[in-house]
């Protein structure tokens, strides 16, 4: 079946603009994750959903970052008032309850100018 | 809390020679351990995972990894490198709720 998809694949935003990044998980996957990958680094955990419940948002770097998954499927990561340090690839992953391997999307590359 | 250290940021091998990518982990409990591969402009792909069933884990594309608790290591190996193996490799520790990635090892395969 289809894998995890993300849109847009590339986003350029001017400093101060708001952006919204979308993730479509694998159908039926209960868990959804967001990660941030800076250039030359490994991905870093941002937040985790189980169905529509956001169970862990400890990795969100500031209150400008907000994620939602209102119907337990598609998720949106929103970044308000973007800053240059927000430039990174944002990865979405999903998993079923068992086994819980995470399957990753291709990512959205955000560049803040 | 858990952390992962990949000991080499770059590894270069000749095609047909063995590959060794080193990883050490630190965790307050016995974590699940994974290796993921990331090809340019492609998503992360799971190579293999360790979940305490067997210490030697076989993955896709001929890769395998051995969990050594006494050394807190989970090194990735392949007997014979192929050009298509050139990519970034991540050692990962995790649970159902969160993955902690190492900083990655860039593997170059020379003809």
Strand-residue proportion of chain A = over 45%
Largest interface: A-B, 27 and 20 residues
- How many individual helices of chain A? 0
Low-confidence stretches of chain A: none
Instruction: Give the number of DSSP strands of chain B.
Output: 12
Give the biggest beta sheet of chain A.
7 strands, mixed
Order of helices and strands of chain A: EEEEEEEEEEE
Structural class of chain A: mainly beta
Record field, number of beta strands of chain A: 11
- SSE topology string of chain B: EEEEEEEEEEEE
Task: Report the mean per-residue pLDDT of chain A as an integer.
Answer: 94
Which overall shape of chain A is indicated by the principal axes computed on the Cα atoms? globular
Low-confidence stretches of chain B: none
Residue share in β-strands of chain B: over 45%
- The class by helix and strand makeup of chain B works out as mainly beta
| Chain-averaged pLDDT of chain B | 92
Number of helices of chain B: 0
Q: How is the main sheet of chain B built?
A: 6 strands, mixed
Distance between the termini of chain B: 41 Å
């Amino acid at each position: 079946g289809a894998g995890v998809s993300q849109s847009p694949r590339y986003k350029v935003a001017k400093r101060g603009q708001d952006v919204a990044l979308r993730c479509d998980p694998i159908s039926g996957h209960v868990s959804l994750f967001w990660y941030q990958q800076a250039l030359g680094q490994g991905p870093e955990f941002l937040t985790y959903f189980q169905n529509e419940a956001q169970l862990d948002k400890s990795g969100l770097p500031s209150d400008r970052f907000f994620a939602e998954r209102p119907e337990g499927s598609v998720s949106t990561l929103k970044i308000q008032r973007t800053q240059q340090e927000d430039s990174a690839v944002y990865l979405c992953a999903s998993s079923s309850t068992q086994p819980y391997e995470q399957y990753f999307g291709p990512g959205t590359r955000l560049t803040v100018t | 809390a858990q952390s992962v250290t990949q000991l080499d940021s770059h590894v270069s091998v000749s095609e047909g020679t063995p590959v060794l990518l080193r990883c050490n982990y630190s965790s307050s409990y016995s974590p699940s351990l994974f290796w993921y591969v990331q090809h340019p402009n492609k998503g992360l792909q799971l190579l293999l995972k360790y979940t305490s069933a067997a210490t030697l884990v076989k993955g896709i594309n001929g890769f395998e990894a051995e969990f050594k608790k006494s050394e807190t290591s989970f090194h990735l190996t392949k007997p014979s490198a192929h050009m298509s193996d050139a990519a970034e490799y991540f050692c990962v520790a995790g649970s159902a709720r969160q993955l902690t990635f190492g900083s990655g090892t860039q593997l170059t395969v020379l003809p």
